[in-house]
Specification:
One of its GO terms (molecular function) is hydrolase activity. It comes from Aquibacillus halophilus. By secondary structure, the chain is α+β, with helices and mostly antiparallel strands. It has 2 domains: 265 residues, Aminopeptidase (3-Layer(aba) Sandwich); 110 residues, Alpha-Beta Plaits (2-Layer Sandwich), CATH 3.30.70.360. The model has no long low-confidence stretch (mean pLDDT 97).
Length: 379
């Protein structure tokens, strides 16, 4: 397969460039759907059936499997959307400098979409039927929490033995074997407005109350146990000389194990059930939106298989944990052996310095194709 893939590198880079040069931020439906149509056409040409799950406000999701597939045991997850707003491509389109390619979404994860496509092409060229043992989901809202695609992923993943998730590899090439879970919460505080110079005693400061809550919430962090609570955004008040009548805080929580979720949620609710500033009112909304991806026995077995594959083809396999979220959490929580970070190597995702290591493109495509082959055929 390596010889075939080496002949395809130019075509892979050409397709990556085409995809990168299309704005496809999560809320830019037209761009995301354009990416989806390009890939849909490519897969249809290879004999795959593509089911399009339509959305009104965000891009459509794609469920892809070969027309002759019966009960695939492998699910592959990747996403079509990026974090970048419409117009970003005009500011900094795809470019190559040395061994690196740059552009919005080049590593997270447009190059991964191309890796999946060409891994399948390599299997077909090899005459290996492993491509009939996979089901692929390209969702359109991973970067905003997979709110409309989570149920689709969980439904399609049921009954699968393995989940291969195409988030980019770490900068050193490591795969991801565990991720922390994520929750989003919002605290809203209602106070009473008053002129801060003329009659401050008549006011009840929502900002002061929120300040008490922020301190208490941050004290819930236990970094040694993998728990972090961060109030990342606040807003409130109407003017500097007015006692604030409202304040809002947006909170990000991370957990290493699912059993940490309930006790943490209880403590957050307790903090928000009372007030420190008399006359204010506090309300809380939110939930865990991604369970943690825990490194369990099934994951260890799959990781060992991938290590054997890597040794066979000359790709060193290391694994790591990360605090960032991905759709790997959903399959892992279902008890499916899950490995993430199977995309090519790169870095600085979500920034204007995002890059792809071009030299990793063929080795990571070969790795994915050979993993599919091994999991499907036992060799």
């Amino acid at each position: 397969m390596i010889k075939f893939l080496e002949t395809q590198q130019e075509e892979m880079i050409k397709l990556i460039k085409k995809l990168v040069n299309i704005d496809s931020g999560s809320h830019f439906k037209q761009g995301v759907d354009t990416i989806g149509k390009i890939l849909q056409n490519q897969f249809v040409e290879l004999g795959f059936a593509v089911e399009e799950i339509e959305n009104e406000e965000i891009g459509n999701h794609l469920i892809i499997k070969h027309k002759e597939a019966t009960s695939p045991s492998i699910i592959i997850l990747a996403h079509l959307d990026t974090v970048f707003q419409e117009g970003t491509v005009d500011e900094r389109p795809f470019k190559i400098k040395g061994d690196r390619a740059y552009g919005p979404g080049v590593i997270d994860m447009k190059s991964s979409l191309v890796v999946v496509l060409f891994a399948i092409k390599a299997l077909i060229q090899q005459g290996d039927n492993g491509y009939k043992n996979i089901q692929i989901i390209f969702n359109s809202d991973e970067e905003i929490g997979s709110l409309t695609s989570r149920s689709i992923i969980e439904k399609e993943a049921k009954g699968k033995k393995y989940a291969l998730v195409m988030e980019p590899a770490r900068k050193n090439g490591s795969l991801v074997s565990s991720r922390r879970g994520k929750g989003n919460y919002t605290i809203s505080v209602k106070g009473r407005a008053a002129h801060s110079g003329i009659e401050p005693e008549k006011g009840r400061s929502a900002i002061e109350e929120l300040a008490h809550k922020i301190i208490q919430l941050h004290e819930l962090s236990d970094l040694d146990s993998g728990i972090s609570v961060n109030v990342g955004l606040i807003e409130g008040g109407s003017s500097v000389n007015t006692v604030s009548d409202y304040a809002i805080a947006h909170i990000d929580i991370r957990i290493a194990e699912m059993e940490q979720a309930e006790p943490l949620e209880v403590r957050i609710e307790e903090i928000c059930s009372t007030t420190d500033v008399a006359g204010t009112e506090v309300s809380l909304e939110g939930e865990i939106i991604r369970p943690p991806m825990e490194k369990n026995k099934k994951t260890e077995v799959l990781l060992n298989i991938i290590r054997e594959v890597g040794e066979k083809i000359g790709v060193e396999i290391e694994d790591t944990a990360t605090g960032g979220g991905s759709d790997a959490s959903f399959t892992s929580a279902l008890g499916i052996a899950t490995i993430d970070g199977l995309g090519p190597i790169g870095g600085n995702a979500h920034s204007d310095k995002e890059y792809l290591e071009l030299s990793s493109l063929i080795p990571r495509t070969l790795l994915l194709a050979t993993i599919i082959q091994r999991l499907s055929n036992g060799r």
